[in-house]
């Protein structure tokens, strides 16, 4: 079990024990380090990879940012400090910042800088790519594809990635044709309010993609 999964399990155990809401239980546990390093959760990338790209490992980055007086000023401020003052390129500055936020418990898995969460799912399915796009662009077609959802098109009809307003959040749907006649569908469901919403929507999209592949 990963550090992130362990931390989420501890949050839920505390919720059952104390009756606290998820956010309150998480906040209380952040003050209780999960291992001897004092890390709440591991970053997504390995220590070796971040060291090879930036010249420093995760514990060094944690100490450097903790020692910087502006470390409580938010994601953008930290990323700018890592990029402008420490000479790390923009992509890796963002990666270091997200890793620091996970280490210190300031960011949960799937959480974005604005505090919302994103659920991702992809699958290669046997489907006509053009026909599926037409259904996604049509109000009637979306009613067939998502019979229990209220949807709205949030992007231009010519966009490569279609944005669909759902009952909760906004789903970005990319449908890419493959040489064998199938299509790869990638979904990024953004603006979700809680970690619980992520799990619910990941299950929803798993079932939806399976049903689409079988139709």
- Overall shape: it is globular
Largest sheet: 5 strands, antiparallel
Helical percentage: 40-55%
Strands of the biggest beta sheet: in what spatial order?
Answer: 1-5-4-3-2
Return the string of H and E elements: HHHHHHEHHEEEEH
Tell me the number of strands: 5
User: Pairing-aware structural class of the strands and helices?
Assistant: alpha+beta
End-to-end separation? 35 Å
Low-confidence stretches: none
The number of helical runs is 9
Indicate the proportion of strand residues: 15-25%
- Rounded to an integer in angstroms, the radius of gyration calculated over CA atoms is 20 Å
Structure explained in plain terms:
The chain is an alpha+beta fold. It is built from nine helices and five strands; from the N terminus they run ααααααβααββββα. The chain has helices at 3-18, 22-30, 47-54, 58-67, 75-85, 90-103, 129-137, 139-145, 195-214; strands spanning 117-125, 152-153, 161-165, 170-177, 183-192. Strands 1-5-4-3-2 form a five-stranded antiparallel sheet, covered by helices on one side. β3 (161-165) and β4 form a beta hairpin. α1 crosses α2, α4 packs across α6 (90-103) and α5 (75-85) crosses α6. The longest helix is centred in the C-terminal third of the chain and has 20 residues, at 195-214. The chain starts with a helix and ends with a helix. The relative contact order is 0.11.
